[in-house]
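Sequence decides. Consider this:

===
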Amino acid sequence: MNKYLKQAENLLSFIKQSPTAFQAVDTMKNILEQNNYQAYSPNQKAKLKPGDKYYYLKNDSAIIAFEIGNEPLENGFKIFGAHTDSPSLRIKPNSISIKENIIRLNTEIYGGPILNTWFDRPLSLAGRVTVKGNQAFKSQTLLLDFEDPIMILPNVAIHMNREVNKGSEIKANRHLLPIIALADTEAVDQDWFDNLIAQNLEIEAENILDYDLFAYETTPGNIVGVNQEFISSGRLDNLAMCYAGIRGLVDREVNSSFNGINLLLYTDNEEVGSLSKQGADSLFVRDILESICLNLGGTRQDFLNIFDCSFMISADQAHAVHPNYSEYADPEHRPLINEGPVIKLAASLSYATDSKSAGHFIEICQKAEVPYQWFVNRSDLRGGSTIGSITSAIIPISTVDIGNPIWGMHSIRETSGVKDVYYLDQVLKVFFSI
């Protein structure tokens, strides 16, 4: 297996272990602990020093990891930021809906998925379950992943909807209720679903308080193409960027010294606007960065000064020009699969990139001997956004927005390039070694 395929296979393994943001953060926590990172408490008594490695969790779905290098307060933060969530269907609290003797699960749309890609796919459920603790306000959370294909959203036959190939409206309240079982002669209510969860977790159903559960496709990701050039998988947006960052952080040259503070910033809820306690549009990020500075022996003024010598790479997937829909790309900016990371620029400032931050990233790519590309929206089309501008408004750090080029963004299965996974890995190893 060549170096490109090895990285791609490792990415697919990571994605398989991470059906929701909760499992993704748990997977990354395990990777960090295997590399001698330990849990961080902002009020811990032990002062930080060069060589220390810590991680901090927020709401089980966001994570910050950092390592202290040389002269940290003087050299500042080197941040790689991404988000842990992906578009999906979230299960409602009163989840059971029965029609035509079929048990369905009631859902609402999370983020902006391409809905027609969710039909006729084997689906499962994963997320977090909150259960009773020993006392009030001391509840516990358990991760849940059914793993097996327990649900499906069947399409209606073309014989009944002759216009389906001309485009049919998908009504969330009618068409997006996955089928999970046949209803039997006994009464089926919310207890039926709670018992199903309890059986999987091997707990008593009466101890279940609530849950955060999301649907996902169970078919594993694949390397595709006659020359094995492409990756087809769910949740490439944005788990591929999470994977790149954590591998770049822990796999950089062993025992090599670096300057400043290497830091991963992985927030949740980007797909719904980032405005949450664990999202990029909150103060928890700034609070943890200030705590790090204070625990290094710095002052409040040192914390305010550190922004001017810090730098952030905000990473979210980018749009590759699509050969079947090439008219949607800007005539002069046409990112290609397997041609390296993409720098994203927008006059609207939906991306945080400017010439200075782009220049820093270009220098890193050149040092890593990796190609790079540019993405700018076609001028008459409204583009997307990510955490870069949001985060840099709260922590005023020079920031570049980048991503690997993919097709089918927000489809239940997206397509990316095998080489691009390797390219970004090389860039981040250089970044975290500076």
